[in-house]
From TrEMBL:
InterPro entries: NDUFAF7, NDUFAF7_sf, SAM-dependent_MTases_sf. Belongs to the NDUFAF7 family. SUPFAM superfamilies: S-adenosyl-L-methionine-dependent methyltransferases (SSF53335). One of its GO terms (molecular function) is methyltransferase activity. Its EC number is 2.1.1.320. Residues 411-436 are annotated as: Disordered. This is Protein arginine methyltransferase NDUFAF7. It catalyses: L-arginyl-[protein] + 2 S-adenosyl-L-methionine = N(omega),N(omega)'-dimethyl-L-arginyl-[protein] + 2 S-adenosyl-L-homocysteine + 2 H(+). GO terms for biological process: methylation. Arginine methyltransferase involved in the assembly or stability of mitochondrial NADH:ubiquinone oxidoreductase complex (complex I). PANTHER family: PROTEIN ARGININE METHYLTRANSFERASE NDUFAF7, MITOCHONDRIAL. It is found in: Mitochondrion. Pfam families: Methyltransf_28. The gene is Ndufaf7.
Length: 436
């Protein structure tokens, strides 16, 4: 598998073989089962309270303040467990910057806007977007821009600060405040850090969530002759230091999120994603702006997508918890439903379609013409191939947007509320980019 392909691997890479009322998490040899601090913590928890949901398992493994993977690991880049699109090619972030400027123009050129990124990684994507804002300074010169980053990892927030500010001015830190860190970008734009979207000031904002929703905790359900049963994580009775999946003996509360007419026999639901989408929809409906969501996902068609990544390879989700990234594909049909018609939704559209509509071919040609060294040209071409190739990220990654109803001219409120997947040409990326 190409080392750069993160989370796009087919789910077949981790077998989930149902055996009666439990299924295997894989067949890794005993010597690979590392007893990590997180595994000890989870085993104590399960022994105390019983089997836990997959959602609780993901939340503990990824964001536990003492032992969580995101809290204490620098998981990005070639030495980490995965590489994201901004690390693959500068063009990706540049085109997203153009998307926000295009939306700002199309919605009336407000005198100020907030750029809000959820889970900003190393800050590379926001950095590329801010570079575009600087290059289009003549267009944005009368606009007051501020950056607001929602990040739970102290380690990553420090990396983001270094990427975006280069310590141009000393950072302000206040661990007890909702804004736990403040700085100024290289181009003079104020940057603030928060732990929760709800703490970000309300106002005209453009929201960005790139590979954010796919790490939110999911509940997994299997259809049985007795109805839906939730998949839980338990201790294997045969091996004292090994976890296994089991089925709950009766209905559990998260079952309420499953559609009554659901036809799949296995589903994953993410209540946390629903809460965030409702918050975004409420904000955009009241104050305007837009949200752009880019992630691996599907439109209500896939079943079991829960998987782990360690060192750019698929990793058994129940082995050595705390040492690998955990992820599940985003169900965009669920996000659309959770918007509850408060805003219009567009997509999902495949990444290669979105980037082509945004003019990636033109931008690539400009950069190739400017490049003097053959190695730089090769790097640009490799990055383009990774982003656009259907076998790599081109079809596995999707773009989805939330916009105010009034932004889509000529479309009725009713149509906007239910949103077909037909692209709307007036919105860049979902139709061809047209500067107004």
């Amino acid at each position: 598998m190409n080392a750069l392909v993160r989370r796009g691997a087919a789910r077949a890479g981790i077998p989930c073989i149902w055996r009666g009322k439990c299924f295997s998490s894989g067949n890794e040899p005993a010597e690979s089962r590392q007893v990590t601090p997180m595994l000890r913590h989870l085993m104590y928890k399960i022994k105390s309270t019983g089997p836990i949901t997959v959602a609780e398992y993901m939340k503990e493994v990824l964001t536990n303040p003492a032992k969580g993977y995101y809290v204490h690991h620098d998981m990005l880049g070639e030495k980490g467990d995965f590489i994201t699109s901004p690390e693959i090619s500068q063009i990706f972030g540049e085109l997203l910057g153009v998307w926000f400027v295009s939306e700002w123009i199309s919605s009336g050129k407000s005198t100020a806007f907030q750029l809000v990124e959820l889970g900003p990684g190393r800050g590379t994507l926001t950095g590329d977007i801010l570079r575009v804002f600087s290059q289009l300074g003549s267009v944005l010169k009368n606009c007051d821009i501020s950056v607001h980053l929602v990040e739970v990892s102290p380690k990553l927030s420090e990396i983001q600060a270094l990427t975006l500010t280069e310590e141009k001015l000393p950072l302000e830190r206040d661990a007890d405040s909702l804004v736990y860190m403040k700085g100024v970008s290289k181009s003079g734009i104020p940057v603030s850090w928060y732990r929760d979207l709800k703490d970000v000031p309300k106002g005209y904002s453009f929201y960005l969530a790139h590979e954010f929703f796919d790490v939110l905790p999911v509940h997994k359900f299997q259809k049985t002759p007795q109805g839906w049963r939730e998949v839980l994580v338990d201790i294997d009775p045969q091996v004292s230091d090994k976890l296994r999946f089991v089925l709950a003996p009766c209905a559990t509360p998260a079952e309420a999120f499953i559609q009554h007419d659901e036809r799949r026999d296995h589903v994953e639901v993410c209540p946390d994603a629903g809460v965030i989408i409702q918050e975004l929809a409420q904000r955009i409906g009241l104050t305007g702006g837009a949200a752009l969501i880019a992630d691996y996902g599907h439109d209500g068609t896939k079943t079991d997508t829960f998987r782990g990544f360690c060192g750019h390879r698929l990793h058994d989700v129940l082995i050595a918890p705390g040492t690998a990234d955990l992820t599940a594909d985003v169900d965009f049909s669920f996000l659309r439903r959770m918007a509850q018609g408060k805003v219009a939704s567009l997509g999902p559209v495949e990444q290669r379609t979105f980037l082509k509509n945004m003019g990636i071919d033109v931008r690539l040609k400009v950069l190739l013409d400017k490049a003097d060294e053959a190695s730089v040209k090769q790097q640009l071409l490799r990055g383009y191939d990774m982003l656009m190739n259907p076998q790599k990220m081109g079809e596995r990654f999707n773009f989805f947007a939330l916009l105010p109803h009034q932004r889509l001219h000529g479309a009725s409120q009713e149509r906007n509320a239910r949103q077909s997947k037909t692209p709307t040409s007036s919105v860049a990326g979902f139709g061809e980019l047209v500067w107004q």
